[in-house]
Amino acid sequence: MMGLMVLMFFTVYLLVSVLVTTKAVSWAKANNKKPWLWGGLAAFVMYNLVFWDLIPTLVMHKYYCDTQAGFWVYKTPEQWMKENPELTKEDLKAYEDGDEKKYVVLYAGTPHASAITNINSRIYQALDVEKINGMSIFPLGKRVEYIADSASGQ
Questions:
Q1: Taking the CB of residue 9, how many other CB atoms lie within 10 A of it?
Q2: Residue 143 CB contacts under 8 Å (≥ 6 apart), including other chains
Q3: What are phi and psi of 86, to 5 degrees?
Q4: 25-51: pLDDT as tens digits
Q5: Contact at 8 Å (CB) between 114 and 128?
Q6: Strands 123-131, 112-118: parallel, antiparallel or unpaired by DSSP?
Q7: I need a surface site. Which of 14, 21, 100, 125 has the fewest CB within 10 A?
């Protein structure tokens, strides 16, 4: 139902935008002005009433993905197993979906949110999402996912 309301809003907004643009063109013709300039200006204003942040957001998204995105392996599973020989494969068996020991903790705050999921008795997976500093008007965030040892925090 909500999707239908959004579609109806954008349909009405498109019709109003076309009407405003055609009125601007007809006014420009009647007053001996440049119709393409006034029609383009009206279309630009109507577009920017709703989508003013789209182009800057896309540009900033590309910049941050090109400069800050990546994948890092600090310690391979083999290295970790050599450092923790006391653990058996049974200790590191993943929790089942119905297991009580598997849980998700979600910390939601502004401008930061985290989710932690226990994979087994020793390993957890964390997801941190934070808003990029200084860009409060644009919807950009940094997402960091990592797997860590609950005993050492590494």
A1: 11
A2: 127, 128, 129
A3: -70, -15
A4: 999 999 999 999 999 999 999 999 988
A5: yes
A6: antiparallel
A7: 100
